Amino acid sequence: MLQLTGIVSEREMRAQYLDRMDIERERGITIKSQAVRLPWELEGQAYALNMIDTPGHVDFTYEVSRSLAACEGAVLLVDAAQGIEAQTLANLYLALENDLEIIPVLNKIDLPAAQPEKFAEELANLIGGDPDDCLRVSGKTGEGVSELMDLIVQRVPAPKGDADAPARAMIFDSVYDSYRGVVTYVRMVDGSLKTRENIQMMSTKAVHELLEIGVISPEPKATNGLAVGEVGYLITGVKDVRQSKVGDTVTTKSGAAAAPLKGYAEPKPMVFSGIYPIDGSDYPDLREALDKLRLSDASLVYEPETSAALGFGFRCGFLGLLHLEIITERLEREFGLALIATSPSVVYNVRKDDGTELVVTNPSEYPDGKIAEVEEPMVKATILAPKDYVGTIMELCQTKRGTMMDMQYLGEDRVQIRYRLPLAEIVFDFFDNLKSKTQGYASLDYEDDGFSVGDLVRVDLLLQGERVDAFSAIVHKDKAYAHGVRIAGKLRELIPRQQFEVPIQAAVGARVIARETIRAIRKDVLAKCYGGDITRKRKLLEKQKEGKKRMKMVGRVEVPQEAFIAALSSDDGKAAKK
Amino acid sequence: MPGPLPVGAPWPKNNQLDRAPGIRSFHAYVHVPFCDVRCGYCDFNTYTAKELGGVNQSSFHEDLVREIEFSSAVLGEMPPLSSVFIGGGTPSLFTAEQIEAILGSLEATFGLEVGCEVTLEANPESSNPEYFRQLIEVGVNRLSMGVQSFDPQVLKTLDRQHDPERVAPLIESAKEQGLTTSVDLIYGTPGETLESWQRTLARALDLNTDHISAYSLIVEPGTKLARQISSGELASPDDDLNAEMYELLNNLVQDAELEWYEVSNWGKPSVHNSSYWQSQNWWGYGPGAHSHIDGNRFWNHKHPTTYQKALLESAPAAGVERLTERQILEERLLLMLRTKWGVERELFGELGVPAALVAKEIADGNLELVEEDRVRVTRAGRLLVDGLVVNLLSH
Q1: Which of A143-147, A199-203, B213-217 has the highest mean pLDDT?
Q2: Pairwise CA distance, residues B214 & B194, whole Å
């Protein structure tokens, strides 16, 4: 589309043009929605189409729902080689909830494995209509794209706002740019905004002068203003990220609107992890970095926390494990921080024998003994897969303490299985497991399904007899032993040998359930010097010094960053990767 | 293939180095990049005949002499050489006439100090008493014999070609003819037991040489040995066993009254070997050779063909780095802490190492204070010295 409408030349075009973060391009996924304005002409009439490219992964549902709320229609892209995924259903549902006009499209029809007929049938079953109405396009070859543009113009209604009413613009995204300050992305719902005008944020009443206003096409392009229905960006020179809250309404100071637009529901974090700087003096930088990320990612929540082992840090709430991974990676990459993320946890409602209740998001705060009842969060998971994998999937869900709710055939060979599962069981590596056990064919979506009572215990890890709070985890009683053995074994592999012996123990309360020992190092010297190549020796020293900076002192023991991350990873020893 | 060279700045076009002032002795290393067979563990810069594309072993000394002339133009006035070390590769593949041409050129260009240590590395299979006689005639006075092991199985794993029974008569002959002698040993070869190492050591010490070097085997990436280990054909080295072997070595060598002076060296200190640890000045001649001149470290092109061409066209060096003051200090700690001389106490202050860190290592028995103003590693600390340096410099 970018190429066809002429806003990106052939020379500038690259795959995933709108995925601007390195991390998106490396992983081939979209994390941040990106808005872009496309010119198109149909039957002699010029149109300006505002499009938002959104993520698909379940962790980013919130990002999608915000974008959908700013739109009139949605192009539902389905991979013609893979078919409908669980997240397709989830996003479709969101679009329907927003009363959007839906245009189903099969993409990647150029792939040899594409089966457009089969999946058009599935799509038609899903949203009604004729399979032949489903457009077939190839983003790579451009086939069908121009028909799609025509169809968008014909089917998606023009924005309905009142051009003469007081200005109301919905903030659907805002990002921090180190050169220009906060860049706020808005959709004009009513009225218009002009450059140099004084604008007001309706929730905070803060007033700023509009230094620049413009559209994205697909690079930012300054204009004189934004008219009703348009999507664009605002720059006010504001540096404080909290001034520009996603979901807020922007109006003008002179003719302020009476009521704000309906905002977005605050997203609910599902997974919690402690994030700590390896170097304690980076704590203020970490706070600043989180503040900046929070601006473009309203789903990120955090509050200060202290760990005996790790010092000062933040307990952060994430939408899922991928979200956690992405945020830590962005903090490290974009802000140059060396971090430790503790083993992820969910929220527990704990009722003690004395009747007091507490909410635990950090396993180390889980009370010792005297617990009457613990409730853990549950999810309703929807899994879509070819029917051959049903057995495998059921087996996996059983080991994750799941209860089957129902199973439905979607077409001849695709099955939808629904399970009720403890969230804690799926935040770790469920998705990876599911993908690998089904050769990548299964897809997953899940939604919150309240709380259930569980038989849970806290497993602690001790180094040299000292409990390391960052390694504590809350697990089901039947899995405590396996968990303890696994983590103790992992730590033995990952913690380098020190000048003294380091015993590792896993314990539930006072009872030790697993034990390992890291023997003292006996040799740490390279015998030879390569024919006077001192440079090589010094470079090695410099590398080792760097490595040492990435170690955290826990008591007298040096623990590498990987050891903290390892608690996240699955049984096969590989770090969780999507 | 041998491991990569460092990345540095290009050699200056005007052949002028930015030299830090200081009084340093002057030494020469000469690299003979030839071997009959490449040993499976070796990643040194050496080539067998079929890897050599056009370079002629029998006239290669002419290239080395050309570099000596080049170095003279770069260095200007220098003190006479305190040591010359001809290493490799297999220097004993050079004829005595070739060695003579090199030593003659060095002497004519820089002069040799009285008592200058002139060492040649030799392999048992390419040595004989008559060769030693010729070497002494052309000025060699010290022989370093690549023995590695007396265990035939270990030698086989290392791809060494010689019969261990040849070693004793050769050393005997070298000593009789007046050469200072040293043997090189390797321990920690896959399959080598503590008992085998003990037998190798006993036989090596029986040779009664003036000096012993013993290196733990390092598995270098890209070598045949590394492939054999990753495929599971050979066991990977065990650091704990290596530590035990080192302990045994320390004990037996001490009983034989050879004094320890550097992590891997015992006996009458080699002037040349010591110059590396003391950051004296030396020029390394030949492909891939490294030099240090007054705070500049530089290294030659690796492959003999590239080296030859560069030498003819401009300069043999592939890169150079001028050390910063900080780097000079860090290197001093890194290198001198490996030796019996240790470092002066002030060095820690200059490097900003907190006294408490040094005190802790002393308390832990890894470092010791000698003569009030020097600090050196203890016997236990010898095996941990690289880690100690990292600890001391990370604060």
Answers
A1: B213-217
A2: 14
